[in-house]
Amino acid sequence: MIYPYSFAYVENAIPKLVCKRIIEHSKFYNAQSAQVTSWKQPKKYTRQTDENWRKCERKSFSKKWIYDAINPIVDNVNRSHWNFNLDFGENVEYLKYGKEGHFDWHVDQYLYPWNESTTKNTKLYNKIRKISISIQLTDGKKYEGGNLQIEHPTEKKGNKSLIFTLDQPEHRSIGSMIIFPSFLRHKVTKITKGTREALVVWYIGDRYK
Question: How would you class 70 by CB atoms within 10 Å of its CB: exposed for 0-12, middle for 13-18, buried for 19 or more?
Fold first, then answer.
């Protein structure tokens, strides 16, 4: 399945006041070390902390006012780029990358749809992640490194995969949103100075037909 667009971005998609409100709201939740997923057998996986692969703090929550700000933008971009059938967004995740924080190459879409052995949320059963979004909550001038990179699924540069590094001011300004299919490999490069805060959400739907 090949699509002409690997990603889209909307500069200043979310107002700065909303971004500030998200950061303030995140303070009501306890931070957890971000984990990675390992598949041990079909349709089952384990989660574990592995700072060699992923190092950041995460907080997960769900608030209608956040989706009210995000959903119209995701709907418009999806219709014009991929036209996936989407149902709703999972819980948002507030992520905080400090010094040495990073997330190595991975995909957000699991090998199998959500089921009773992988989640307790029955609303997710038989659904898959289709679109991933990342929203800048920190001014890109206040940290170094921490760039989102996305691998093109087919194109090469020499004998290596084509990698898009989203490190321009329009990608790193507060409220800017980056949107891409959840089956694409991507990473967050290591923070070398400062702190990066971001909000991520995954939009799910039925399996591809």
Answer: buried
Exposure string (b/e) for 168-191, b if CB count within 10 Å is 16 or more?
eeebbbbbbbbbbbbbbebbbbbb
Cα 66 to the center of its chain, rounded Å: 15
What pLDDT is stored for residue 111 in this prediction?
A: 82
Q: What is the pLDDT of residues 46-90, one digit of tens each?
A: 667 777 889 999 999 999 999 999 999 999 999 999 999 999 999
- pLDDT grade, residue 209 (50/70/90)? confident
pLDDT of residue 195: 97
Q: Is 181 helix (H, G, I), strand (E, B) or coil?
A: strand
What whole-number distance in Å separates Cα of residue 82 and Cα of residue 148? 20
Report how far residue 11's alpha carbon sits from residue 142's, in angstroms, rounded to the nearest whole number: 18
**Neighbouring residues of 205: CB distance < 8 A, sequence distance ≥ 6:** 84, 85, 86, 87, 127, 128, 130
User: Residue holding tokens 């989660």?
Assistant: 47
- 195: phi then psi, degrees, rounded to nearest 5: -135, 135
Distance CA 37, CA 18 (A): 31
d(CA 141, CA 102): 18
pLDDT at 6 over 60: yes
End-to-end CA distance of the chain: 11
